[in-house]
Design a protein that fits this description.
The protein has about 180 residues and is of the alpha/beta class. It has 5 helices and 11 strands, in the order βαβββββααβαββββα. Helix content is about 30%, strand content about 25%. The chain has a 7-stranded mixed beta sheet with strand order 5-2-1-6-7-11-10, sandwiched between helices.
Length: about 180
């Protein structure tokens, strides 16, 4: 049976990345639920398209056992994360990432996902594809310039443009 995936979408989310995951999951019969990293489930893409997610990240806390994988869908909120890291939704984000990692769930993301994994204190020693601008901030993981990396249960793509190259291996793991 296909695995179940929790998808985290920051506000604003990179729509090109988010929709690649959702389309691939839908087309392959992989169940997913989208959680806004916000106080509301009404968010936008970085191009201004309004989205209504299934729920918020606060309601994902304590529910890692309901899912097999976690996707961090990057977006324009990441560059200003430091200015808002004390917001409830960002505290919940880091808690959820730690919870999923502690339970050895599949950890998936693109762009600055490796940076968010780093901030959550997970991914130590893992090879992680990361956007070049976020690479210097990775200390515990092993940031690479590769378009994608698979290291154990971590699947990372350098950007939304390299998600398609990562998708075949990811889909095998999720089926």
């Amino acid at each position: 049976m296909a695995k179940r995936v929790a998808v985290l979408a920051v506000d604003p989310v990179n729509g090109a990345g988010l929709f690649q995951y959702l389309e691939a999951f839908f087309e392959n019969g992989i169940r997913y639920k989208v959680f806004a990293v916000a106080d509301t489930n009404n968010i936008k893409t970085n191009s201004g398209i309004e989205l209504k997610t299934d729920d918020t990240v606060a309601h994902l806390q304590g529910h890692a056992d309901d899912f097999d994988a976690l996707v961090f869908s990057c977006g324009d909120a990441v560059p200003v994360f430091g200015q808002h890291e004390s917001e409830r939704y960002n505290i919940a984000l880091l808690n959820v990432i730690r919870e999923f990692a502690d339970k050895d769930k599949l950890m998936i993301g693109h762009c600055a996902a490796a940076l968010i994994f780093e901030l959550a204190g997970v991914g130590k020693g893992k090879r992680l594809a990361v956007h070049p601008l976020a690479k210097p901030a990775i200390r515990e993981g092993v940031p690479t310039d590769a378009p994608l990396e698979t290291d154990g249960n971590y699947y990372t793509a350098q950007s939304e443009h390299t998600i398609p190259a990562m998708m075949p291996e990811l889909l095998k793991a999720l089926k």
